[in-house]
Each structure stands twice: as C-alpha cells, then as structure tokens.
Give the backbone structure.
Amino acid sequence: MHIRDILANHNPSFSFEFFPPKSDDAWNELFSNIARLQELNPAFVSVTYGAGGSTRQQTHDLVVRIQRETKLTAVAHLTCVCHSQQELSDILDRFAASGVENVMALRGDPPRTMPNYDRKQDAFQYAADLVTFIRSRKRSTDPRGFGIGVAGFPEGHPDMPNRIKEMEFLKQKVDAGADYICTQLFFDNRDFYDFRDRCELAGITAPIVAGIMPIATKAGMTRMAELAAGARFPAALLKAVGRCNSDADVRLLGIHWATQQCLDLLNNGVRGIHFYTLNKSDATLQIYANLGLRR
C-alpha cells in the first residue's frame, strides 16, 4: 500500500522499525516477534539499511520476506552514501520487482571502517537529491511511483550549524517529493513540539511521525545515544535511571517513560508514533497495553 494512502487511513498511525539480523537464529527470533507485533495491526513497518549499504542484500531480503509472509506493509530504508546512481537505480528496480512500494530516503553515514571516506564519490550528496531521484522512478503498479519518507531531528541535526538552516534543508526534502517525516528518537516531548512548530513556520505540511524508543539497560543508553547521533536524556530520566538497582528495573522505567511520552503525544495531536523496536516485541506490546490500545 502506498504511504500516502496508509497515513490517510491511519490517524494517528502506529508503526515499527526493524533491522536485518546477522544469524539464522536471530532471523527466527525476529519473525517470532514480528508475528506478535502483527496482531497490533500497525500502519507500516520499516527496515533499516546498514551504513554505506552494508546490509543492502539483508534489507532487501527482510523487506521482501515481510511483504510475502505477513500482512504488513514494509518501508525499505535507502541511503546516499557509498552508492553510484546506477547502484541506486538497480536497488530501486529490485524493490519494485519485489512489490516493495515505499522507501525511506536518508543521506546516511559511511561505515566506521571508512573514517576517511570521500563523499564526493557518491551520486547524491544530500537526502533531498535522493528523494528527487526516487520520485522520478515510475512503477507500473502505481503512477505515483514509490511512497517516500524522510528523517527529522527534534533535537536538531548534528551536522547543521543552526535550526534555521536545518529547516531549509528539511523543506527541500519535502518539496522534492517526500510524503512524510519520521523523527529520530527523543525523550523530551518539548523537543518534538518545538520541532513541529518550526516545521509549520517553515511551511512544511507533510505528516510528522514521532520516533519513540524505550530504554532497556543502562549500557544501552550509551549505545542509543550513539545510534541517534547524540540523543539528549532529560535530567529527570537520568535521575530515575540512577535509582534503578538492575536492568530489569531500567526496562520497567523505560516502558513507563515511553508510555507517558506516547500519552502526551496523543493528547497533543501527534500524526503518528514510530516505535524503534530493536527487533524485540515485549516493550512495544506493553506500551500498547498501557495506552489501552489493541488494534
């Protein structure tokens, strides 16, 4: 289903994100969790794309398997980094041939093993250029082409000199043909509301989906900050984590904090909530239960 139709039919929308597993056992565990989450009838699920395209085959395999073996609509991530235009064209052709209708267009980062990578080798330097390219691709099953999502940063993009310039670049992505914006994870809803207001001031009217990830362990908080390009943890959250005696306590706290975020977002008209699941189902299922949601 095309992303525009999905968001039109789900208001607010609820969606999940997965990443390609590295082992057969992990694949089996993931699909067990996907089966449990499928019962929640999410608007869509997305599949990440490794730095520099390092998981391009696994991303394709996972998206196609979700499309074929479940009733879910899958959105495939795609990045600019380490790709020629022909490579991107071939990837999009494979998606189209496999029935994948929606793509999340990202600038992306080079692998950590390539710290001196020269991005001038890439066909496209910015996500807006990738959006334009994807929008130009036609699909026989839908004259609108692919559905396209782009990323937003409630706490500010780490590479932008200021928020004004950041909004200019975000508007370029939307004007190039993006159907919606999905934000990076955040832990203070005031950052999201400020971001949403900035989008309105910039004339950005695309639906904005809020990214939520419940913390699970103290060690995971550090990894989470790295993955989210410097996620900001509110002092109240850090104090609460500091009072926890075990990771089991941290997990319960993380679910509670995320639940309160979601309740507040729903009460303030959020267009959608996107759960970064880390390929697990328990926390998302518990948050759904806490919110009184079923399907």
Q: What stands out?
A: The mean pLDDT is 91. Residues 3-291 form a domain with the TIM Barrel fold (CATH 3.20.20.220). The first helix runs from residue 3 to 9.
